[in-house]
């Protein structure tokens, strides 16, 4: 009867915490490599050593981020021409270390002002023209609600938010 509580439920024996609870088999067999820091630690240390912003470290060919990069899609599909000062180098050479032809077109992206090719202006004009047409069409519509609506002026509205003194207990 001592295994059962007064409510008829089975009592669990009190268990002490296992001293090796955090030491799983995976952690024992595959421990972390402490000889080499992680990539995040290396990057953080590099930023601290150079005392420079992340923009400088991650910048593309040291160009300021204020200049917008124009995509390859914009260059090929929309046939956006390269300006004279942004021409590609004439010859590509095989880079043995990277095993690629260098320089690539992606290494020299176009920079310039962002373009939407007039799409945003056209969409805005189309949208506002539709709204103007609806408003003009609605002005002439007469309905029972419009005819029976009484315009309430601000002078007639009670803007007081406090309970009047004659209603309060004070």
UniProtKB/TrEMBL annotation:
Keywords: Cell projection, Cilium, Cytoplasm, Cytoskeleton, Flagellum. InterPro entries: CFAP107 (IPR054709), CFAP68/107 (IPR037662). It is found in: Cytoplasm, Cytoskeleton, Flagellum axoneme. One of its GO terms (cellular component) is axonemal microtubule. One of its GO terms (biological process) is flagellated sperm motility. Microtubule inner protein (MIP) part of the dynein-decorated doublet microtubules (DMTs) in cilia axoneme, which is required for motile cilia beating. Microtubule inner protein component of sperm flagellar doublet microtubules. This is Uncharacterized protein. It comes from Helobdella robusta (Californian leech).
């Amino acid at each position: 009867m001592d295994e059962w509580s007064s409510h008829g439920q089975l009592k669990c024996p009190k268990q002490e915490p296992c001293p090796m609870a955090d030491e799983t088999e995976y952690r024992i067999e595959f421990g972390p490599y402490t000889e080499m820091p992680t990539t995040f630690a290396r990057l953080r240390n590099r930023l601290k050593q150079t005392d420079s912003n992340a923009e400088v470290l991650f910048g593309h060919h040291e160009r300021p981020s204020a200049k917008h990069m124009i995509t390859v899609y914009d260059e090929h599909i929309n046939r956006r021409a390269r300006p004279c000062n942004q021409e590609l180098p004439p010859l590509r050479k095989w880079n043995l270390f990277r095993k690629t032809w260098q320089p690539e077109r992606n290494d020299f992206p176009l920079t310039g002002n962002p373009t939407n090719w007039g799409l945003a202006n056209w969409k805005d004009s189309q949208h506002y023209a539709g709204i103007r047409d609806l408003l003009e069409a609605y002005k002439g519509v007469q309905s029972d609600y419009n005819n029976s609506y009484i315009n309430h002026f601000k002078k007639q509205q009670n803007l007081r938010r406090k309970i009047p003194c004659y209603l309060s207990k004070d």
